Amino acid sequence: MEDNSNKLKPFNTMHFLNFALGFFGLQFAWQMRLILSGPVTENLGASPIIYGLIWLAGPFTGMVVQPLIGNLSDKTVSPFGRRIPYLFAGAIFASIALCIFPNSGNIVHFIENTTGIHLHHLTALLLAAIMIWVIDACVNIAQGPYRALVPDIVPEEQYPIANSYISLAIGLGSVVAAGAAPFLKWAFGYQMSINAQFMMAALAFTLGMTWTCLTIKERKINKENITTENKTSFLDALKDFFKLSAEVPKICLMQFFTWIGAMCILMYFTQYSIHTLFSVPDLTSAGEYTKNIYNATVLDGTNFASVCMAIFNLVCFIAAIPIGILSAKYGNKKIHTISLVLMALAYLAAAFVKDTKLIAALMGIAGIGWASICALPFAMLSEFVKKGSEGSVMGIFNIFIAGPQVFVCTLVSWLINKSSFSVGSDYINYHWEYIFIIAAICLLLGALVTNSIKEKGFKN
Question: Does residue 175 lie within any of the structural domains?
């Protein structure tokens, strides 16, 4: 078989931007799901523990879908390439679900009004939960093969920069997605509805991924060029994954702790803003009259959460390329360790303050760590990936991103659910600030593991 690995042409800035645009759309859609799924499901009757269980869609689809799709994409031969069919299909079906999800209640009411059948009061919540599962599955279908494109089409010496451009796209996509509604409210006094924000996310995902699929050219691989490694089963790929290097289990453990810390905030920050900073009691079982009383305050809390996530991801966007450059000079592990410690300290401080300006500033500092999380672990792993197994490796590696989310969705949700306290005589609230303490501890553990990893080409 002809070795094409030495014929990869270096990417220039335009190539990297075209490559990253699809991830911009993917992250745009994912950011809407992160920020707004909480208010949507709570309005349909989801308590903290129910919300956590609904969130299990993400890790379960990540642990199952990404490894299988990654392994399958390694074997795929099509006129469109190995990875691109999965990128495009994931974007289209996720976009459809993004449009349905915030309209779950309206759809159920429409069915009841047109058929005369009275459905169970949790039918809308069930429909919303199904749509979340579809969104998460389709995002994972696109994300694994997308990550596998880096070692597929980018020269090895440009891996850190390529992953940093993905980090840049993640940051920019999140900034635009999170900042659009607050900006329109601030600049024009127009409050964008949650439904409209999800429609905007679906459009961004479809257009961004379509552009990348049209402008990125994969190497042509014929059936006879697929190596024996490409034909291995998923279980064989899993065994091979842990044989890559003694450092790979450490990288996986690093990801495990890191993503517990990351997901605590990504999952629950909007609820923290609404219920802790803006003092809105739990409205899960409240009637429509009570919900209407707090509706404006809930929107204020949601907008503040969006602003904070925009700042968080703006810093990620700004720091992405410098982190890639610094890691190429000083080593991935040193820069990643420093970034995780900085993020942990910011979250630890956030647990004990309630000043909105200070919280926004601390979320900005944490954005440096997020830029590192989105890029450097993948660059570290890429050093040990064998040619021909990129999709399988990146898919299996996602288990150690998705797995920690199970912990957050279950145990952390349970802890929050058990931390209720009375608000007046009629309402309760929860200690949502606990998410920052848990996140800080896990990020510090992740930093300790990172510091023990031995990198190729750097003195450790």
Answer: yes
